[in-house]
Design brief:
alpha+beta; Thymidylate Synthase, Chain A; six-stranded mixed beta sheet; 10 helices; nucleotide biosynthesis; Thymidate_synth/dCMP_Mease; thymidylate synthase activity; cytoplasm
Length: 289
C-alpha cells in the first residue's frame, strides 16, 4: 500500500488549508488518483489495522439496498451511527440519550429503529432503486451479455434525492471495464475523501466489490482505480497520518471467496474471508460529522 502513503505525503506537501462543513479544518488537494493491481494482493492498508468485518458488512448492506443502520448495529458495525444520532437529538423523542444508549435502542427496539435508524435514500437505495432502476442488477446482466461496453456505470448521486439523505454520497460514481483477457477493473470517482479514516475503507470496499462481481460474471479481478476530487486530511488527524508515515508497509493479505456463489445477491459474511492479514496496530481518530 505504498500508493496510500504516497498520497498522504503528496497532500501534506501540496494541499492547502481549507475550511469545511464540519468546522474541523482540513489540508485539501483537488484531483488525485491511485491504481491498485488486484492480482498483487487485496489492497487493505497494513500501516494501521482496518476493521475488515465492517468493510464486508457495509458492502453487503449496500448490495441489499438497505438504508437503515439496524443491520449494521446488529453486526457490531459502528461506522454510520453518528449521522442518525445527530438527527435523533433534534427530535421530540430525544431525552439526553448518549450515542451508546441510542445504538442500544436501535439494536433492541425494532420500532425505534424504523423511526430513527434510517439514513434516507443513501447508497443502497441508489444502487438498487435509482428512480426505479436496479443499477446493480442491470450492471451484472450487461457485464455478462455485453462485457466490452463503455456504459458499465453505477451512480449514487441522485440530485432529486440528495436533500433527503443523512449524508450525500462521497463515493459518487463507479465504472467497470472488461479487458480483452477478461479481467474486470473498477474506477471509482469520489467527490470527497477523508484520507485518514475514509480512504483506506473505500479502497477495500470497492476492491471487494470488484472481486465479488468478477466471480459472478465469470471474469478475473483486474485493477481498482481510485479517482478523488477533494482529497483532504482533517487537522485533527495530522498526528495519525504522520505516525503512519513512519511505518513500513507489510505484505498484502489474500482474499478468499466461496466459489459456490454465482449471484452477487447471495453472498453472506461467512462467504468472504482474508488470509495473512498482519497489519501494524490500530490508530484511532475522531470522525467529523
Amino acid at each position: 500500500m505504498k500508493q496510500y502513503l504516497k498520497m498522504v505525503e503528496f497532500v501534506l506537501a501540496n494541499g492547502q488549508e481549507k475550511a469545511d462543513r464540519t468546522a474541523t479544518g482540513t489540508i485539501s488537494y483537488f484531483g488525485y488518483q491511485m491504481r491498485f493491481n488486484l492480482n498483487e494482493g487485496f489492497p487493505l492498508l497494513t500501516t494501521k489495522k482496518i476493521h475488515f468485518k465492517s468493510v464486508v458488512h457495509e458492502l453487503l448492506w449496500f448490495i441489499a439496498g438497505d438504508t437503515n443502520i439496524k443491520y449494521l448495529v446488529d453486526n457490531d458495525v459502528r461506522i454510520w451511527n453518528e449521522w442518525p444520532y445527530e438527527k435523533f437529538k433534534k427530535s421530540q423523542e430525544y431525552n439526553n440519550e448518549t450515542l451508546a444508549e441510542f445504538v442500544e435502542k436501535i439494536k433492541t427496539d425494532g420500532e425505534f429503529a424504523k423511526r430513527h435508524g434510517d439514513l434516507g435514500p443513501v447508497y443502497g437505495k441508489q444502487w438498487r432503486n435509482f428512480n426505479g432502476v436496479d443499477q446493480l442488477a442491470q450492471l451484472i446482466e450487461n457485464l455478462k451479455t455485453n462485457p466490452f461496453s463503455r456504459r458499465h456505470i453505477i451512480s449514487a448521486w441522485n440530485p432529486a434525492e440528495i436533500n433527503e439523505m443523512a449524508l450525500p454520497p462521497c463515493h459518487t460514481l463507479m465504472q467497470f471495464y472488461v479487458s480483452e483477457d477478461k479481467k474486470l477493473s473498477c474506477q471509482l470517482y469520489q467527490r470527497s475523501a477523508d484520507v485518514f479514516l475514509g480512504v483506506p475503507f473505500n479502497i477495500a470496499s470497492y476492491a471487494l466489490l470488484t472481486y465479488l462481481i468478477a466471480q459472478v460474471t465469470g471474469l478475473e479481478p483486474g485493477d481498482f482505480v481510485h479517482s478523488i476530487g477533494d482529497c483532504h486530511i482533517y487537522q485533527n488527524h495530522l498526528d495519525q497520518v504522520n505516525e503512519q508515515l513512519t511505518r513500513t508497509p507489510r505484505s498484502l493479505p489474500t482474499l478468499k471467496l466461496n466459489q459456490n456463489i454465482t449471484s452477487l445477491f447471495d453472498f453472506k459474511y461467512e462467504d468472504i474471508s482474508l488470509e495473512n492479514y498482519d497489519p501494524a496496530p490500530l490508530i484511532k481518530g475522531a470522525v467529523a460529522v
